[in-house]
Amino acid sequence: MNNLQKIQHVMEFPPAEQQHGFALKLMELLVIPTFVIDASGKVLIWNRACERLTGVPAYEVLGTADHWRSFYSERRPTLADLVIQGRTGEVHALYDQHAHRSEGADNLCAENWCEMPRVGKRRYLAVDASPIYDAEGRLVAVVETLRDMTDEKRAQVALEQLATRDGLTSLANRRCFDDTLAAEWQRALRQQQPLSLLMVDVDNFKQYNDAYGHLGGDECLQRIANAVASEMRANDLVARYGGEEFAVILPNQALKGAAIVAERIRCRVEQLHLPNLGSDAHVVTVSIGAATALPSVDTDPSQLVATADSALYRAKHMGRNRISLPFQEPDTAASRA
C-alpha cells in the first residue's frame, strides 16, 4: 500500500449513523468553548471547553433554555438566541460596537463583557453564532463558539489609558481634554444646555519646586489632582492641562454652579495645608478662572477656553488664591474665604 492509498484509507468515512456520533464526539472534545441550541432555544450540546469557561457542567443546561445564566446575572439572550428568534437587528443594542455580520454568510459575530456568575469573574468574550439549516432550508439549530479575549481587552484598555491619561496624576491628559471638550460642546449644542469650564493654576509653584525639589513638586501636584477630582460629578472631567495647570469640564452647569464648584476646589486645596512660604497664606493655594457658554453654530470651544483663561489671569493679577468669573468688575469678580 503506497502513501496515497494509506491516506485514502484513513480518510474513508464511516456509515451515516457513525458519522453523526463522530461529529458529536468531535464537538464535545473541541478545545474551543461551544454550545448548540435547537429551534426552540434548548441546549443540545454543551462541550467540555464550555464547561471549563463558564464553570457550568453540561448536565445543568442540556435540554433547557437556561444557558443565559452561565453568562449573565439577569435574563438576556445569547447571540445564538438572537439568531434562533430572528432578532439579529438587536445585536448592536445588546453587544459592543464590534458586533457585525460576517461577509457572505449568515454567521453573526460580536464581542462583549460577560458577568460569568458561576466563576465569579467578568470575561470579555468574542462570540460567533452559526445557523444550521435542514435540506428544506429550515433553521433547525445554531452553533455558538466563544473565545476568551479578556487579557487582550484589558491590554487594549491599558494602552488607551496610556494615550489619554497623564502619567503623573492619572487624570485625563491634554489630548483627552481637547477631545472631550469638543464632544461636550457638540452635545451641549444639540441639547441647548450650558457648558462650563474651570482653569485651575497652582499659585507660586516655582517657589514650591525650588524649596522641595521636583519629587516634592510631583507629590504636590498629585495631591492637588486628587483634591480637585474629589469635587467632581460622574460626568465631569478633570484634566492636567499642562505643568501646574488643571482644567475642569462641567457639562450642563451654569456659571453660578461653576463658581460654587470652583470655590469648593479652592477651599479643598487650601485645606491640604501643604506648606509654601512663597505664598501669603504660607500654604499651597490655587487660582481659578471660570467661564460658561451656551454653544451656538457661530461659536467654538476655543472661545470658552479663552474666556476661562482670561478669568484665571485676573485671579492671578488680583492676588491669587481666589476665583474669578468673566465680565465682572474686580470688586465682585473674586471670591475668597
Automatic annotation (TrEMBL):
Its EC number is 2.7.7.65. InterPro entries: Diguanylate_Cyclase (IPR050469), GGDEF_dom (IPR000160), Nucleotide_cyclase (IPR029787), PAS (IPR000014), PAS-assoc_C (IPR000700), PAS-like_dom_sf (IPR035965), PAS_fold (IPR013767), Rev_trsase/Diguanyl_cyclase (IPR043128). One of its GO terms (biological process) is cell adhesion involved in single-species biofilm formation. Residues 108-161 form the PAC domain. GO terms for molecular function: diguanylate cyclase activity. It catalyses: 2 GTP = 3',3'-c-di-GMP + 2 diphosphate. Residues 193-328 form the GGDEF domain. Gene3D superfamilies: 3.30.70.270, PAS domain. Residues 25-63 form the PAS domain. SMART domains: GGDEF. One of its GO terms (cellular component) is plasma membrane. It holds the Pfam family PAS. Transmembrane segments: none annotated. This is diguanylate cyclase.
